[in-house]
Write a structure and sequence with these properties.
The complex is a heterodimer.
Chain A (H helix, E strand, L loop, with lengths): L2 E2 L8 H33 L9 H10 L1 H35 L1 H6 L1 H6 L9 H8 L3 H24 L4 H9 L4 H38 L5 H10 L3 H29 L9 E2 L1
Antiparallel strand pairs in A: 1-2
Helix pairs in contact in A: 1-11, 2-11, 3-7, 3-9, 3-10, 6-7, 7-9, 9-10, 9-11, 10-11
Chain B lengths: L1 H10 L4 E14 L2 E14 L3 E5 L6 H9 L6 E6 L2 E2 L7 E4 L11 H12 L3 H14 L15 H13 L5 E5 L7 H17 L3 E5 L3 H7 L2 E6 L4 E7 L14 H16 L8
Parallel strand pairs in B: 3-8, 3-9, 6-7, 7-8
Antiparallel strand pairs in B: 1-2, 1-4, 4-5, 9-10
The complex binds adenosine-5'-triphosphate and magnesium ion.
Chain lengths: 272, 272
């Protein structure tokens, strides 16, 4: 009647991540091709280094400037992580509140949504004035940018439990606490992770932009200073490190998702 | 006089399990009230299998929800066992048209949620869950996730979940409505087998006249706007029921009788 094929156990996160890397390999070769074209274009046309440095020149800059890049990357990464952590710490409980309280849903949720029309980058100078040039204003901007997708997705996820599922919980005599932990939250996890992945991208943007506006350290600061002395290669070096940070951050969240939400990625293996 | 009434009581064969007396349900809507059920009287004996058929919107699901205590009724009285229903009744098993399985739990864990929520001893529950899954031929799929199961398999898991705690009353709302005809036949047989093994009263909603006749001791016909009990038909067919019985004259006489009732209600119109 029915058979189960070999891949039955939920796939191991590591194996899955390898599969993802396998999937991106065509994209990787496209990237390599683009870099080679860039190198050739710069070499053949003798483009001056203060306009567009060749990839080899950028690579050399990364190696030369490595220690200072890493120190500044450390600053940016800590802004991202602290801000992201705060965004989760504020966003998820807020989503729970909005889901469970009619009053909160009507009094707070519309404001959160409306607040998204405020260009947060525009209030960054204001934050500098209030919080000075230290870590605090950067973290605030990271939180402001990244917390929105976390809240929205968590609310959608927490409301994704069907009426039948909640009836079922009630008919088992579930307490509100049990209903939350055993039904609503697991149901919401895939949504929450979708929000977190979006938020990683925004958190990186937030940290770098905040450093543009007023900082004396961090990769955004490196870009500004290098720009004022026409050190384009160094700017590229910083951009590449920022991109790498963003990618690693995203992949970490994705791996975490595979670990916490394994049922989302199990293949269809059984048939009747 | 006194003697006689005592005699009558002694002669009563089965004590009624469910007593619905003069029950009405009105939904308060923004566009006025909806009279979903009006003056329902129905008594169901312990261990009886009762099906409810009726056109869409006649209040079948509403009646089931009233029985489970998940929806309060407006007028009248519902007693299940010795209990007056006035709050969610956790002494039931419920199966909906959608299987409402928890995607993050394996088949076995889905059945076990019933015991977890009720804080029942897990070892004994696991034993029983395995037994139930075996009875519906799912012993090889204990560890499969819902998305790895076919629609029929999923619904079988959800039936096992509803039966784990040996509820005296099983409520089913079109449980096979979303399944293809062959799977449906199989699940009907599975259900009858489970019923034979777990002495319980079954309240079964369906759109299929032949399904109602095949499974039931009695079929309740409801008519719409507002929902009323139109007729109750005793099905006098031997048990265990066999699929071949559906070709018997006695069986087709019942389905014809029910079809005629629906024609009388204007549910079916045959002229083009
Ligand atoms: N929560 C509700 N609020 C308002 N009206 C409702 C609600 N639930 C049901 N109704 C109304 O009550 C009536 C009966 O609905 P119910 O779902 O019980 O019908 P049903 O017989 O189960 O129909 P179907 O066969 O389509 O499932 C319908 O007119 C419906 O619109
Ligand atoms: Mg219904």
């Amino acid at each position: 009647m029915a058979t189960i094929t070999e891949a039955a156990p939920p796939a191991h996160p590591l194996r899955l991540s390898l599969r993802v890397l396998g999937n991106i390999s065509p994209a990787f070769w496209t990237l390599v091709l683009l870099v080679v074209l860039w190198e050739l274009a710069v070499q053949i046309n003798q483009v001056p280094v203060y306009i567009l440095p060749a990839p080899s020149r950028v690579a050399a800059e990364i190696i030369d400037y490595w220690p200072r890049l890493m120190i500044n990357a450390g600053v940016t990464v800590s802004e991202i992580l602290i801000g992201f952590g705060c965004a989760i710490a504020v966003g998820v409980p807020l989503a729970v509140l909005v889901t469970y309280s009619r009053v909160a849903e009507r009094a707070i949720y519309p404001l959160i949504v409306a607040s998204q029309t405020i260009p947060k980058v525009a209030i960054a100078p204001l934050l500098m004035a209030w919080f000075g040039y230290g870590l605090t204003p950067k973290i605030v901007i990271v939180v402001l940018l990244s917390f929105f997708p976390i809240v929205i997705n968590s609310v959608v996820g927490l409301k994704a439990s069907s009426a039948e599922m909640l009836y079922l919980a009630q008919s088992m005599g579930a307490t509100p606490w049990q209903t939350f932990w055993k039904f609503r939250l697991p149901q919401a996890l895939p949504y929450i992770f979708a929000g977190l992945k979006l938020a990683t991208v925004l958190a990186v943007i937030g940290a770098v932009v905040a450093e543009f506006i007023g900082a004396d350290r961090g990769l955004g600061y490196v870009i500004v200073v290098a720009g004022s002395s026409f050190n384009i290669a160094r700017q590229f070096a910083a951009i590449i490190v920022i991109s790498a940070i963003g990618m690693v951050f995203f992949v970490i969240i994705e791996l975490l998702e595979r670990l916490v939400v394994p049922w989302k990625n199990t293949a269809v293996v059984a048939s009747e | 006089m006194n003697d006689m009434s005592m005699n009558v009581e002694a002669a009563a064969p089965v004590k009624p399990h469910i007593r619905i007396s003069r029950v009405s349900k009105t939904f308060k809507g923004r566009k006025g009230d909806v009279h979903a059920l009006s003056d329902i009287d129905l008594t169901i004996g312990r261990g009886e299998f009762v099906s409810v058929v009726g056109p869409s919107g006649c209040g079948k699901s509403t009646l089931l929800m009233l029985l489970s205590g998940l929806t309060p009724y407006s007028l009248g009285k519902i007693e299940v066992g010795e209990k007056l229903i006035s709050s969610p009744n956790s002494d039931v098993g419920i199966v909906f048209q959608q299987d409402v399985l928890l995607e993050w739990r394996s088949a076995l864990q889905n059945v076990l949620i019933q015991a977890e929520i009720r804080k029942a001893p897990l070892e004994a529950a696991r034993e029983r869950a395995r037994e139930l899954l075996k009875m519906v031929s799912l012993q090889d799929f204990e560890n499969a996730y819902p998305k790895e199961l076919s629609g029929g398999m999923r619904q079988r898991v959800s039936i096992c979940r509803a039966l784990l705690h040996k509820p005296p009353l099983l409520l089913m709302d079109e449980p096979f409505g979303a399944l293809d005809a062959m799977t449906r036949d199989q699940l009907q047989l599975d259900l009858l087998r489970l019923c034979a093994d777990n002495a319980m009263t079954v309240f079964f909603i369906t759109h299929s006249i032949s399904e109602a006749v095949f499974l039931s001791d009695r079929v309740v016909v409801m008519s719409p706007r507002p929902g009323r009990v139109e007729r109750i038909i005793d099905i006098d067919l031997p048990r265990p029921r066999r699929l071949a019985m559906r070709e018997d004259l006695k069986f087709t006489a019942y389905t014809r009788e029910l079809t005629e009732i629906f024609k009388g209600l204007g549910v079916f119109r045959e002229e083009v």
